[in-house]
Queue: 2 jobs
Job 1
Amino acid sequence: MATTKKASAKTKSLEDLFLDGLKDLYYAEKKILKALPKMAKGADDGQVTAAFEKHRAETEAQVERLEEVFEILGAAARGKTCPAIDGILEEGSEILEEYEGSKSLDAGLVGAAQAVEHYEIARYGTLIAWATSLGKDDIVELLSATLEEEKATDKALTSLGEAGVNDRAAELKAA
Ligand SMILES: [Fe+2]
């Protein structure tokens, strides 16, 4: 019944919000872990493949950090379907399919991967702010380590695009 739902919603706290956000990210990281090898395999440029493979290894550690956070909270590590990351990854799959064999494939993949990173940067930023308000310094530290990796990955992808991937797609540089 709607009234019961409303009553229980009223008692929800910042801790509840935090745990929901954590589950969302846990689901997202696991999905990203599965998507990155496909993107690495699909990319033409060896540097793009290497960037995706490097981030796949980092993502494994990020999943483990989230599991540590669940443990600190005494909660079971469980994901919650995140339609946002499903949609972003679905768009990445579309690029892989629709641009296969195209000189623009890598530019598309780098852009798709940056959309993933930006989603994660937004979510980790929020969770760190909430953990700070909740006084959970150990959790802030764990999540900050991941946030720095996501930011570094985003920067590396920007550099790859600017270093030639985008110009090759625009036929300004030889492959
Ligand atoms: Fe991540």
Job 2
Amino acid sequence: MSLDTIPHPAGRASDELVPSRYALQVGQIEVLVISDGVLPIPAPIMAHNVDPAVRAAWLDDMFLPPEMLDWPLNVVVVRSGGQTILIDAGLGMDPDLELPRAGRLVQRLQAAGIDLASVTDVVLTHMHMDHIGGLLVDGMKEQLRPDLRIHVAAAELKFWEAPDFSRAFMPPGFPDALQRAAKRFVSLYGSQLRPFEEEYEVAPGVVVRRTGGHTPGHSVVRLASGGDRLTFAGDAVFQVGFDRPDWHNGFEHDPEEAARVRVDLLRELAATREPLVATHLPFPSVCHVAVAGGAFRCVPTVWDY
Ligand SMILES: [Zn+2]
């Protein structure tokens, strides 16, 4: 039998070399990390408050290219207490930005056997396009349930009414695209939004908590069940943030506060020894946090597959 005759129920997605999903269990909570693809980002965006030579040396030490980096984009699906929760939605497709290597969420959910109509809740860590864009893809809303609940910090919704980009450092075109995406999102899903102030338990053991920093309403999701824990850190920490937690990422709207949030979270996770998953760490990004002098280390967990 030739490979071509094997039925591919999920269409092209199953032709991919790697399945781009990784399942783990946190007590009774089922967790699936899904890759939305990668996003090429100019290297200076990753650390815009440091000497270019220092940044170049760090990139070289990390075996990363000097000019353009492939920024991983992870999304998480959680099942708890009969609810299916999508945490962030990936990049989607903005016709004005040429970013064809991300925005794979729909195909990859399909390939994982997750029906969009089974999603009861969406939790947004924040409203940057690489976290809400998947909800803006043509035909997406029609496939989602009409009673879908979307949880996002009230401070985040408020921020995007008149967003301040004065402290951010983004590639050209991004501020406009981000504002456009946030506006479209609110107009499309306004009636389904369930804003929370500081903290909200979305399902048993699934708590979203506002941190601020990256954006004023940036939030992390804490999972806890039967003594197991896991934190989805969203954009509170990037790859460079372990070694150099004080380096400012260009997408941070309040970089000093973002650095404080990062250090506090990494310190806490190092103390509690609970694992972490984050949006822009290399897939599947499940790691423990260790303290290394004045910095941190991301210690990958062993894949169980
Ligand atoms: Zn992001």
